From TrEMBL:
This is tRNA ligase. GO terms for cellular component: nucleus. Its EC number is 6.5.1.3. Residues 416-573 form the tRNA ligase kinase domain. It comes from Zalerion maritima. One of its GO terms (biological process) is tRNA splicing, via endonucleolytic cleavage and ligation. Residues 621-647 are annotated as: Disordered. The active site is at 138 (n6-amp-lysine intermediate). Residues 576-818 form the tRNA ligase phosphodiesterase domain. The keyword Ligase applies. Gene3D superfamilies: P-loop containing nucleotide triphosphate hydrolases (3.40.50.300). One of its GO terms (molecular function) is ATP binding.
Length: 827
């Protein structure tokens, strides 16, 4: 059927049957809306209102009378609310010379993907909408709004801004859009003022897609004649959404030199559905890869009771678009030296990456261009040409190969996880985290003393497999002969053994950074290690570490002994153990779903890493202990020893570290340097906490509210009994991030516990997350003092605050944090 449906950019003749919509602005209505928006604007972050919007003002650079306009931006999630004064995505107003308010740019009402919200479920689309249905390709560039101001200035905006960034910066989307407009108007002998007047007479905003690969390359190709401004809509500048029928939009495009957006008109929604589903099969239409369609029609929540209004929904295709996007992200990761993470299309993506690697190695400029979004499409097309495949086939290939050797559904036990690493890469940290999450065994080579350690080490590992499905064989295995011994002995002792390598990649470009980071970590570890008491014998350990790095033999997956590994997972030693834990778990989950059927949630992983970072080994032996009897040999004690129960130190709501880190990054990006100094310092000295929590109540203050403490304790006991884990999750509690408050010693985030039924409360005066402290002399619990001072006197003096623009609400895990013995962590 798809072949019989033709996309046309010429509905001009049938345009006659459509009436041009027109409606004037009602200044009173607009004033009311602007007031309402103003009351919800989050400039100072003081708004307690239900929805919030961001107001930004711009002076229109091209306006001779210096007109100022305001952009109003809602948060994406707020578009699902029912109480917004307008649902326009892209909404700008101004004050006219007579003082009244006026809408100058009006985007489309926010529209949703099929199935994304209730209204866009097929049932509803089938029963509540009416045609004609106008299907256009979901163009893939950047949206540009155009309208005319009171002084005949042509206003050109991108979604939420207009004008330049400043004299020295690269052109903005709005700048490039305006250049295209000038070009197309010149070709017709028309002026920007002509277009401004026409749009103003219509009380309308023209909506176009800027598609220009030479400026910015997206997923689909727009070069040469294909580049330009694609007009796809004309909206009335009214709070309610009124938009032109597409044939009229195409007429307007012809008259003003825009490129036209191809269009399919259909009357029957069932045919629309069939058509979309058929296109989704191929991800292409008329031989061109597309991302999806936008469908314009009219909707009412109840056809018998309420009037129809203009309404859009979108229908996005999965493939090969998603595969292309994955390739693009992986290529960028490859160039940046990061891990390439991907789950779908494994085989073809791997081949693509091998191809890309070779091409990039030959041509360094390609890498640079690629990071600037150039050459993405040509690289992909070269690969497809080389494979003699089209995108749809390549994406489908995986389905056929779903049982590719990468996914092993048989292995559920007898797994030995063996790092290939050097000292300080985080082997033990990742091991401890895995073991606490999954109850796996852990054998540390450092705990094996005496002579002929290698075979005894492997035997200890294999023995662990009787206690659990997997064991972490914690040893460097930096050299091939060690790997050979490990794999051979494992397989000799257990025929069913599956040996998985964790390859901490030491590429040539990276090795100095690896060296530096590992050194720093090990120095920070001080004497807390079995064989390397760094604080005591500095030079000795540096030599030992360097020795490992020098002898390090990278994995050679296609030749023995490394080809005997059942699977190899690449890790980045500089990425940090939290990130590496994530990679290991994701990869094991994908490759051995029976071994690791369910992913833990991010907070559980944060907690596991934090505990691992706090771990201190009990055994200590001298570095020369291979050749002489250890002086201070203690009885061997591995982590498998049952620990004596530790008391609860405090209760906390853990929140995902990645969300906190990205919120902080965003918040501090636009802060002047002198005000973001502490943040920069904390990051530079690695004193941002690896894991974040809101303290609910601490043992030390339990007497302030013994009932609450007892309630928490009894919940914790019940859960511990049920799960066997004293720090098991006790419940969920949403955490709303409000602002960052800091002086020059300590930084905290003021939060709100969004727990509807009030189960979870904090006894701290101000609920907060400690971000980090300047050095060990500043204890995290001093956040309380900082916030007390802030509460009393506000900002000023040493105390600063940065209010989060978008109030993030995070899902938190409530759990107990157990005492760590003598070195206690006080929140
Ligand atoms: P191994 O020698 O490979 O076993 O490395 P460890 O796991 O013992 O890590 C070396 C030191 O670095 C320990 O003190 C860890 O607590 C610390 N460490 C591990 N991972 C990280 C990390 O991601 N960030 C920081 N800052 N320290 C880490
Ligand atoms: Mg170790």
């Amino acid at each position: 059927m798809a072949s019989s449906v033709v996309m046309s950019t010429d509905f001009g003749q049938s345009a006659d049957q459509f009436k041009v919509p027109y409606e004037e602005q009602d200044p009173q209505e607009v004033t009311k809306i602007v007031k309402d928006l103003d009351a919800h604007a989050t400039k100072g972050g003081k708004s307690r209102a239900k929805y919030s919007c961001r107001k930004t003002s711009y002076e229109v650079e091209t306006s001779p009378t210096g007109i100022e306009i305001f952009s109003w931006k809602f948060q994406d999630q707020d578009y699902k609310r029912r109480d917004l004064p307008t649902y326009a995505r892209g909404f700008f107003t101004t004050r006219k010379s007579d003082g009244s308010h006026e809408i100058v740019i009006r985007g489309y009402d926010k529209f949703f993907n099929n199935d994304e919200v209730n209204e866009t479920k097929w049932d509803n689309i089938l029963s509540r909408t009416r045609g004609p249905y106008e299907l256009s390709l979901k163009e893939n560039g950047c949206i540009i709004f155009i309208s005319g101001l009171e002084d005949d200035t042509l206003l050109v905006c991108s979604k939420h801004s207009t004008g330049s960034r400043g004299a020295s910066s690269a052109p903005t989307h709005a700048n490039v859009g305006e250049q295209w407009l000038e070009k197309q108007l010149n070709a017709l002998g028309k002026t920007k003022a002509d277009l401004a007047r026409d749009l103003r007479a219509r009380n309308a905003t023209a909506v176009a897609e800027l598609c220009d690969d030479s400026f910015e390359e997206h997923i689909l190709a727009y070069t040469g004649d294909l580049a330009g401004l694609y007009l796809h809509g004309i909206n009335l500048n009214t709070p309610k959404f009124h938009t032109y029928p597409s044939p009229l939009v195409q007429n307007f495009a012809t008259n003003w030199g825009f490129k036209k957006t191809g269009l399919i008109m259909m009357d029957d929604i069932k045919k629309v559905k069939d058509f979309l589903e058929e296109c989704a099969e191929t991800g292409a239409h008329e031989g061109r890869d597309v991302e999806g369609f936008v469908i314009r029609c009219q909707e009412t929540y109840d056809p018998n009771r309420a009037a129809f209004h203009d309404w859009f929904f979108k229908y996005k295709f999965d493939e090969p678009y998603l595969m292309y996007r994955q390739w693009r992200e992986c290529t960028k990761a490859l160039i940046a030296g990061r891990n390439q993470r991907y789950k779908k299309h494994r085989k073809i993506t791997e081949e693509y990456l091998n191809y890309a690697k070779k091409r990039l190695a030959k041509n360094p400029k390609l890498s640079k261009d690629y990071m600037q979004n150039h050459g993405i499409i040509s690289l992909r097309n070269e690969f497809l040409a080389y494979k003699q495949m089209d995108g749809a086939d390549a994406a489908k290939m995986e389905e056929l190969l779903d049982n590719s050797p990468d996914v092993n559904n048989e292995v559920s036990k007898d797994v030995i996880i063996a790092p290939i690493a050097t000292i300080g890469c985080g082997k033990t940290t990742v091991a401890l985290a895995l073991c606490s999450l999954f109850g796996w065994g852990h054998v540390q080579n450092d705990n094996i003393t005496g002579k002929v350690r290698p075979p005894r080490f492997v035997r200890a590992c294999i023995n662990e497999l009787t206690n659990g499905p997997a064991v972490f064989a914690d040893r460097n295995n930096a050299q091939k002969h060690e790997r050979k011994q490990l794999i051979k002995d494992c397989k000799d002792l257990n025929r069913n053994a599956t040996v998985v390598a964790l390859h901490f990649v030491h590429t040539e470009e990276k090795v100095e950074e690896v060296r530096r980071i590992c050194r720093e970590r090990v120095i920070a570890r001080g004497d807390n290690h079995q064989t390397i008491q760094a604080a005591t014998d500095q030079q000795k350990f540096i030599d030992v570490m360097d020795g490992f790095i020098t002898r390090f033999e990278p994995v050679d997956p296609f030749n023995p002994p490394d080809s005997y590994f059942d699977s190899i997972i690449d890790l980045d030693p500089t990425a940090g153990s939290r990130a590496n834990l994530d990679t290991v778990i994701k990869e094991l989950h994908t490759r051995y779903p029976m071994l690791l059927p369910k992913m833990p949630n991010p907070v559980e992983m944060d907690v596991a890493i934090q505990e691992a970072l706090d771990y201190k080994p009990e055994l200590r032996h001298n570095i020369k202990s291979h050749t002489q009897r250890p002086r201070d040999k203690l009885p061997e004690r591995g982590p498998q020893q049952p620990r004596k129960p530790r008391p609860v130190e405090f209760f906390a709501v853990g929140v995902p570290a990645s969300d906190i880190n990205s919120a902080l990054e965003k918040a501090f990006k636009e802060i002047p340097t002198h005000q973001s100094r502490l943040y920069t310092q904390l990051k530079g000295t690695r004193r941002v906490q690896p894991q974040f929590h809101v303290t609910l109540m601490h043992r030390a203050t339990s007497q302030q509210n013994p009932q609450l403490w007892d309630k928490y304790i009894s919940l914790q006991k019940a859960e511990a009994e049920k799960t066997g884990r004293p720090d098991a999750q006790l419940g969920e509690c949403d955490v709303l991030l409000e602002r960052v408050v800091y002086d020059d010693r300590i930084m905290a985030i003021v939060v709100r516990l969004a727990d509807a039924d009030g189960t979870w409360q904090t006894t701290n005066k101000v609920a907060h997350i400690t971000v980090g402290t300047r050095d060990d002399s500043v204890k995290p619990k001093e956040s309380n003092d900082l916030l007390a001072a802030w509460l009393e006197n506000g900002v000023g003096g040493n105390i600063h605050e940065v209010v989060f623009e978008n109030k993030l609400q995070l899902k938190g895990n409530v759990h107990a944090v157990l005492s760590r013995g003598k070195e206690q962590y006080r929140p």
